[in-house]
Design brief:
The protein is mostly helical. It has helices at residues 2-13, 24-46, 51-86, 92-103. It has a single domain (2-9, 21-103), classed as Metal-sensitive repressor, helix protomer (Methane Monooxygenase Hydroxylase, Chain G, domain 1, Up-down Bundle). It has four helices and no strands.
């Protein structure tokens, strides 16, 4: 798990800041918090904690990830698609296809 989080941090650090949306730092914070909670869930299972406690924590992790995903997608729709509509380089069909493509994850 630690190796994965280090790889994720590395990809975040090298991300082109021009492509980073205003909500990305908030989403990254939420995902790091969720990753910490997930590590706690694993520790709870290794410690043979009651299944009810583990299920409750897993539910919290799911909600945190869903909220981060929703915020990221909404930001993408607001930021990228608005920009794409203003751009002369992209057709309306391309913008609509992109909207359909990302909206399926909501």
């Amino acid at each position: 798990m630690i190796g994965l989080s280090n790889r994720l941090r590395g990809s975040i650090v090298t991300m082109d800041s021009a492509k980073q949306h205003g909500s990305h730092p908030t989403v990254i914070k939420r995902l790091r918090r969720a990753a910490g909670h997930l590590q706690n869930v694993i520790a709870m299972m290794e410690a043979d904690r009651p299944c009810t406690d583990v299920a409750q924590q897993l539910h919290a992790v799911e909600r945190a990830i869903a909220a981060a995903k929703q915020q990221m997608i909404h930001d993408h729709i607001d930021h990228c698609l608005d920009h794409a509509l203003e751009s002369k380089a992209r057709s309306t069909r391309q913008v609509l296809d992109e909207f359909k493509s990302i909206s399926k994850y909501l």
